[in-house]
Specification:
There is one protein chain. By secondary structure, the protein is an alpha+beta fold. Strand 3 and strand 4 form a beta hairpin. It is rod-shaped.
């Protein structure tokens, strides 16, 4: 591949028209050359800025002192107050420690501490409570001991005595305030909320009673259940009455068909003298036997007469003869009586069905009306239930709060002071950090100023007599070659640059 040679960016001589030489790209060697050329300026600027920053850091940055205290949160199963962790595990302990830390870091505790020691102690001079609270808020922090139920409050201040005194005041205020929050204030607050809940319950119950009275009901659920049961009972009664009516009607129709084949009158009996005559003859024979011999003519004559009469009766000669008696048919009379009874039953069941249908319509209307009243009743009933549950819960809370109030000393002991704050002997200062920052800032500013002045003098300033012109470089060998000048390929990207070694 053919290697193209270009003019060095600094090898071009000033143009004939007096324009400054063309500027090329600066590499690391150019920057080092510029910095070395302005080394005295860089040294002067660095010394002045670093000295000023170091002096300011030493004079203005004062040491601060951190006072520490340690609080132990006990896990007391016998103490049911929120301040104790109870018998829970790590998650419960985390909740308790976070709650205690929030109380300790609250503005109410800091405000009590300011009122206890006064703003002048914290500020070191006269000041108001707002400024003292701001100082406490900015300098106060809470740390946690790993794997332990210990809180470490920290307060940072310029005066070690003020730091210790302020931190102890915050801890004392926290211990008294948490008892009021967790125990002391509970009874009064719960009593007030319970009174409100009782008033709300009474109002909800009055609204429900007024609703029932206005709709003519005593117990909505019982009345609705009774109405539904009455509808079902009436429907069953109607079905039973219709069945009995159909049975009675069918029975009456069957009897009517049977009566068509039953005569209205029948012969009761037929009276004739043959049987009586036979009886009389037999009695006469016995009488004659008592007076005559068996073969006597009177006895033989009456026996012959008895024999002839018996033979006549046996042959049926006396049938249909004699006095006849005809009367009403008792079977037809029984059937007609049963028919009348069944017809009366059918008529009564018809009237019963009519009455039951009227009662069913009324019962269904009542059920429909109560169904329409159900949403309003449920809303009022839910209000009563909810307020009753709230009142019961508040009553339980009131009893528990009173029990906790009686156990206040034990609740207070659930957080104990392991270590009170003492004035720290050593403080932390930012002077070294300030001097290091001044060093870095002075070095960066001096180097930037030197490079800027060197670049200005060499590439931008065209001074005919008072400023140094750009230092000429030895022309490259490519300048005398037959290769194309840089201007002809200025629109192409430069991939590499080969320095002139001649």
């Amino acid at each position: 591949m053919t290697q193209a040679h270009f003019h060095d960016r600094d090898s071009a001589s000033p143009a004939a028209d007096g324009r400054p030489p063309a500027r090329g790209e600066l590499d690391l060697f150019d920057l080092a050359e510029l910095a070395w050329g302005e080394r005295w300026l860089i040294a002067i600027i660095f010394a002045v800025v670093f000295l000023a920053g170091a002096v300011a850091s030493i004079v203005l940055l004062k040491p601060s002192f951190q006072a520490h205290s340690r609080l132990l949160v006990l896990l007391d199963e016998a103490d049911p107050t929120p301040g104790a962790a109870g018998s829970g595990g790590a998650f419960m302990l985390e909740q308790v420690l976070q709650s205690e830390a929030e109380i300790l870091n609250s503005d109410a505790v800091r405000r009590r501490a300011v009122e206890f020691i006064g703003p002048a102690v914290i500020l070191g001079e006269s000041g108001n409570e707002a400024d003292a609270l701001k100082v406490l808020r900015d300098g106060f922090s809470i740390n946690r001991a790993p794997n332990a139920s210990v809180l470490i409050p920290v307060f940072e201040h310029a005066d070690p005595d003020v730091a210790a005194l302020s931190l102890n005041a915050v801890v004392d205020s926290y211990l008294s305030y948490r008892v009021e929050v967790l125990v002391g204030d509970g009874v009064g607050g719960v009593v007030g909320r319970r009174a409100q809940a009782s008033a709300a319950l009474e109002s909800a119950q009055d609204a429900l009673d007024q609703f029932l009275i206005s709709n003519g009901l005593s117990d909505f659920e019982a009345d609705r259940t009774a109405a539904v049961e009455r509808v079902q009972s009436l429907r069953n009664a109607i079905l039973t009455a219709e069945a009995e009516r159909l049975a009675a009607t069918a029975g009456a129709a069957a009897i009517a068909e049977r009566l068509a084949n039953v005569p209205e009158s029948i012969e009761h009996y037929v009276e004739n003298g043959a049987s009586n005559r036979l009886l009389d003859l037999r009695l006469e024979r016995e009488s004659r036997l008592a007076r005559y011999q068996a073969d006597a003519p009177p006895v033989v004559a009456i026996e012959r007469e008895i024999s002839e009469l018996e033979a006549f009766i046996e042959e049926g000669g006396a049938n249909g003869m004699g006095q006849r008696r005809v009367g009403a048919n008792p079977v037809r009379q029984g059937l007609e009586s049963e028919q009348l009874r069944l017809e009366s039953v059918a008529a009564s069941e018809t009237r019963r069905i009519t009455t039951l249908r009227s009662q069913l319509n009324e019962a269904e209307s009542l059920v429909a009306r109560m169904r329409g009243l159900t949403p309003e009743y449920q809303r009022l009933s839910q209000n009563v239930t909810a307020t009753a549950e709230a009142a019961a819960l508040l009553a339980t809370q009131q009893a528990e709060a009173q029990a906790r109030s009686n156990a206040a000393p034990g609740s207070e002991d659930s957080v104990r002071v392991i270590e009170r704050a003492v004035p720290p002997a050593e403080g932390s200062s930012l002077k070294k950090l300030g001097v290091a920052a001044a060093f870095l800032f002075a070095a960066a500013l001096a180097l930037f100023a030197g490079l800027l002045r060197g670049y200005w003098r060499r590439h931008l300033f065209d001074g005919g007599g008072g400023a140094a012109a750009a230092r000429p470089r030895k022309p490259s060998r490519a300048a005398n070659s037959n290769t194309r000048p840089l201007a002809t390929v200025s629109n192409l990207p430069v991939l590499a640059r080969i320095p002139d070694r001649s």
